[in-house]
Design a protein that fits this description.
There is one protein chain. The protein is mainly β. The chain has one domain: Porin, CATH 2.40.160. The protein contains four helices and 16 strands.
Amino acid sequence: MKRLFYILFITGLSLHAADYAGYSGSFLRMGTSARSMAMGSGFTAELDRGFTAYHNPASVAYLEKRQASFSYHSLGLDRKFIASSIATHLPPTAGLGVAWVSAGVDGIDGRTTAGEATQTLSTSEDAIYISFAQRLQPWISVGINVKILYNQLPMNESDLTGKGPGFDIGILLRPGKRMTFGLMIQDMNSYYQWNTSSVFDDDRAPYRDIFPTIYRLGMTYKKGKLYFTGDAGIIAGDKMDETYGYLGQTIRAGVEYTYRKNYFFRGGYGNGRIGVGAGMNFSFLKKNDAFLDYAMIVEFPVGMAHIITYAFYF
């Protein structure tokens, strides 16, 4: 099994996916929690305490307690990214979650067409997640994310906004204590719809920016103090020539080492980035009910990104 993950990791370093980062919805493909990003974000088959439903909505069905988390990303080029979520177990075999993800840039210098300064502008993309999952058997669950999407573009006269829905579906299989498998379809029928008639002062029909869809298959494996995660994905969407088809592929993998039950050291590769990180489990209100995680991500060619996630059970 170690050899399998090693092969996946090396293969992922050598693959060159098509440049799909410029397509709509890229902020939802960045990753969220410090733990997942330090391990390459290959969490399709993992129950991520930093944001349970993000990688696979079916994992919400396996929550045993209420869970809340907050993640903050310190990024280069004046970018910002934050994510917060709360999820809970619904007896006897279901789970429910709500989350918010936001990315953007502040402090943009506004100018007229003549180059005169106007005002300080900002841009942002936001997504509200509503997640539900149901265990069909003790070893299998299915889940769905319903997303409300919002994109605000900066303009001197008035802001231009795009709005739309989004959907994810997932399946999680837990055949044993050491291994899990996950299947995720991300951004089914997800898009921004823009109404530009107020900008161009005409009767143009609304325009849609459609997100690419990602099909992922992942697994986890536990061996002693080592915990391996990984997934592989195919990205499909509308190409620049207006045909629908293959855009690229992803392979993501990571490993976590547990030290004295409460301390964790991590590393991984995914989404074209190398990550390392650490975390700790401590007592806040009850014994071992809180987690603090940190990740440092090498982004080429931007530089370093730093992520902090705080999560707790209640």
